[in-house]
Specification:
The chain is of the alpha+beta class and 189 residues long. The protein contains 3 helices and 4 strands. A hairpin with a 2-residue loop joins β1 and β2.
Length: 189
Amino acid sequence: MPQINLLPWRVELRKDCQMYFLISVGAAMLAAVIVVGGANLVYGSRIDGQKDRNNLLDREIKVLNESIKEIEGIDRQKERLIARMEVIEELQQSRPEIVHLFDEITRNLPDGVTLNAITQQGRSIRLNGVAQSSTRVSSLMRNFDDSEWVDDPDLERIETIDGGQTRERFDFTLRATQVNPNAEEEGLQ
């Protein structure tokens, strides 16, 4: 029987299969490189686009922050102007009050009482003076109780000063409150 040697055919088939396998692996690797490179390019361009948008947003945020600072400055200036306007308006409305106050003090000041100083803080009035007797200070306080423009007299201190050959005098400090009888009608208080 003749002998057929199939071995070289199998070796050739094996070589062809290995060659096909290597080509397939190479094609798969090439395809993988192309896919990875394409994905890298796509995502890289997306990242660059997002960075550009972020930079644009950062610039716009800076512009808006500057605008906000400017608006806050304008708001502070507005508040200062409103406060000034309120002070001016209050002074305009209370301008006649000081005239009435001094008129009321001089009208209610009994004989024998001399005022050395008058100070005012807000509505609080402080009177420093000298009287010939303590009853004249009491009379001043009663007059202020009956007054429309001065209220709540409170004697802070009274001291007897020896006058030597003359009569003794009384040094006093009196606190009172300035009142505007027209304030309720005008809406000032």
